[in-house]
Amino acid sequence: MKQTVRLGVVCLARKTYDFEAAKRIYRDVLVKLRGLENVELVAIDELVISIEDGAAAAQSLASAAVDGVVCISGTFHLGHLVMQLREAVKRPFLLWGLPELPYNGGKIRLNSVCGVNLDASNLYKSGVDDYYVIVQDTIDENWVDAIRAIKALSQARIGIIGYRADGFFNVGVQDNQLYGATGALVDHFELSEVFSYPVDDTEIQDRRDQIYKTFDVATLTEFQIDKVAELSARLAAFYRQHGLSALAIRCWPEFARDFGVSPCAAMSLLQSEGMVLACEGDIDGAVSMIMHKAIGGETPFLFDFSQVDFQKNFALFWHCGVAPCNLWDGVCNRSLDTYFAGGKGVTADFVLKSGQLSVLRLDSARGGYRMFLQKANAIPMEKLLRGTYMKAVFDRPVKEVLDLVVDNGLAHHSSVVYGDFIRPLRIMAKLKGWKIIE
Asked: β-pairing, 388-394 with 314-319?
């Protein structure tokens, strides 16, 4: 389900043009906008023409706490209007130009594109960059989705239990920098708080039953199954009770030693239910998954670029066994196993399903943020490894993708979802002023 957003909508006009036609177009536009998924509209029903109209519209949208403003250039209009709106509402703007109507009596009827040009120039020269321009009959839903991602981060509460994994300096974040860039808040918890988080025995038993129904557990002991069930119940309760948007976990080296099993298998189970869980204390990875989820990506997860084959032109997206179990390919044996940490590293083992993929990493470095975006396709492969993995083919040589990652010093985790979710994030990066790496 996509993040709900509240959008302000105005239509600017001037009576020296065909404002009656603009009014008719605007009414049709509002009908279509009200049909958008999880969008609340705060619409100024009448055309905004005069400076007085602009002041009233600005006050109305400001009081409604909108997440973005759809500013339609119904006709060419006064330059004051968009400035009044922006002064009152410091949110991203969509400057929407309408295609010109057939000429009538030798006179241009709307001159809408020139109005958009005026507004964009006024905003840019005022130091405002978080606007996006379209000229078309219908709204660009990719812009709406970009607003969803911005809204989701502005409300996000991210927990980190423990710290980043030992030696993984590249996934560390500066909490205040993250808050300043996105609005997301980070809260720290100790590992022991999860290990001992109170749950009913019935919750643990339900998780145990779920594990048996989901995985082949033939190689596990009863103790290991019980510990995975217990951890699944405790993590789920902890996540819910703290109202978290995501949880980054220091999953080694202490976890297996002090709790009895690693969290990988439990994370696979819980991610399939929509929880956002990041390995190795990777907060930026968690942020990336929140963004994917906000724009409709189902069960995002983190992977490593674990192998590249330049001759066959593919990459192996692998991790030690945490991918959401609902993304299983339906062919291989979906199992739990203990191939590391002296028998305490209980992981999910399966090949992920085939399909179109979107890759995202919002990555902090050198005092700022940048966004890594790629398209790929997961193709069928045999179950040859432990852990969770897929064979991915990009729409360009894999060598080029690897060069982008290492030449820009990107962290070794990225979020991946099935489907095409690239354009909304490009727009988001533009609105936020972040460099795009793709």
From this structure: antiparallel
